[in-house]
Amino acid sequence: MNRPSYITDKALNIFIKNALAEDLQKGDHSTLATIPATLQQSAKLLVKEDCILAGVELAEYIFKYYDKDLTIDVKIKDGEQAKVGDIAFIVTGSAQSILSTERFVLNCMQRMSGIATLTHDWDSRLVGTKTKLLDTRKTTPNFRLCEKWAVAIGGGTNHRFGLYDMIMLKDNHIDYNGSISNAVKMAREYVEKNKLNLKIEVETRNLKEVQEAINTPGIDRIMLDNMDNETMAEAVSLINKICETEASGNVTRERLKDIAKTGVDYISVGALTHSAKNIDLSLKALKI
Hints:
The chain has helices spanning 9-24, 29-34, 56-66, 95-123, 144-153, 171-177, 180-193, 207-214, 229-239, 256-261, 271-274; strands spanning 40-47, 51-52, 71-74, 81-82, 87-94, 132-134, 167-169, 200-204, 221-225, 244-248, 266-268, 281-286. It is α/β, with parallel strands linked by helices. Strand 10 (244-248), helix 10 (256-261) and strand 11 (266-268) form a beta-alpha-beta unit. The chain is elongated and about 70 Å long. The model has no long low-confidence stretch (mean pLDDT 97). Involved in the catabolism of quinolinic acid (QA). Belongs to the NadC/ModD family. One of its GO terms (cellular component) is cytoplasm.
C-alpha cells in the first residue's frame, strides 16, 4: 500500500536516527563482543499470533538505513492477514547489523501490528455504511508516526496528525473563550491573518452548542462529544450536511453500527492507538 503523505523519508530518517541513538549509544557490545564483523547470516520474522501485519515497509527502511547491504525477501506485505507460524520476511546480510536492529524492528512491528489488527476489527463493523473510522492524538510521544501509519494499514482513516495541521476547538478552548462563536471568530481571523489553509473543527457537548455551531459561519466539522445515539441523530438532523460531523467520546466496538446509523461522517476512537495489544513476533536466526 502507499504510504500516508506524512510518512516522508525525512520523517522516517529522523525517527530512526533518534531511536538508534537511544538504543545503541556507544555500541551494541553484546554483538560486537561475540559476532565477527565478516559473518553473513539470515533471520526470519516469525508470526506468533494471527494478525493484520504492519510495519514491514518500516522494517525494510530500518534495515537499509542501518546497513544498505542488508537484503529483505518479503513474504507478507503490510495490511495482509498473517497466521501463527507464517514467515513475514527473511533478512540477509551482516549478522552484526541484523542483531543490532532486531529489537528496534520488533518493537515497531509488534506495536504497529497490534494497532492495525484492532483497527481492522473495528473498521469491519462499519462495512456497508458511509461512516469512516478515525484515530486521535492519543498516541505515544515520538512514536505517533508509526501508530498513525498502522491505523491506515489497518483500514482506518487518519485524523489530524498534530496541532499544526487543523484547528480543533475543544471544550477548554471554548470555555476559556466564553463561547463557540467567539472561539471560531478568533480562529478565522488567525487563519486569515497568517494565510493558513486549515480546516476548523468545533467540539459540541449538547444540542444547544450544536445549534450555536450551526449559526456560526466558518466551521468545517462539528464534533458530537459524548452524546447518546438519540441525541446524536437529532444533532445530525439539525446540522443537515452544512458541514461534516464527527462522533467522539464513549465509543465502544459494540456501539459502532448504531452510531453510524445516526448518519455521522466520522467516528473518532482513541482506543485504536492507546489500547491496542502488541502482537507477538520474533526474529529467528537462519544459518546460511
